[in-house]
Amino acid sequence: MTTTADQQALSDALAAEYAAVYAYGLVAAYCAPERAKIVAEFTAAHRTRRDATIDALKAAGATVPAAAAAYTTPNRVDDPIPAAQLAATVESDTATAWRAVVERADSPEVRRTAIDALTDCAVRQATWQGILGAAPTTAPFPGKS
């Protein structure tokens, strides 16, 4: 059973997933051709997480917030490098949102979902960091701002 704290935390994470799906559309438009498959895979993962979060909120009887019409990106995306940088930022941002769910949720089920989501984000972020040549590719505490 979810509590009000669970519902608010999930709503906040849903906002990050909405933004991620939007941003990956931009990443797809400018990514290097050899990255198209990974972009499609990661986009699908965020869509699946978004849809599961919507379902969880509905099942709890919570109001599901709507996605924004558009989102502002932290940098201009006009070629493959900024596209990869945006993707890495998206994964960092969604990791932060899911880490907050782990910290704020009351129910073990919601915390488990958040841990799974946080782990997925951390793996995707490490992938993008590797593509960008960053070292280290992983963060010691994913989602910690």
Automatic annotation (TrEMBL):
DUF4439 domain ranges (all copies): 9-143
Annotated SUPFAM superfamilies: Ferritin-like
Residue runs in coiled coils: none
Signal peptide, first to last residue: none
Pfam families in the cross-refs: DUF4439
Superkingdom of origin: Bacteria
Annotated TM spans: none
InterPro entries registered for this protein in UniProt: DUF4439 (IPR029447), Ferritin-like (IPR012347), Ferritin-like_SF (IPR009078)
Full protein name: DUF4439 domain-containing protein
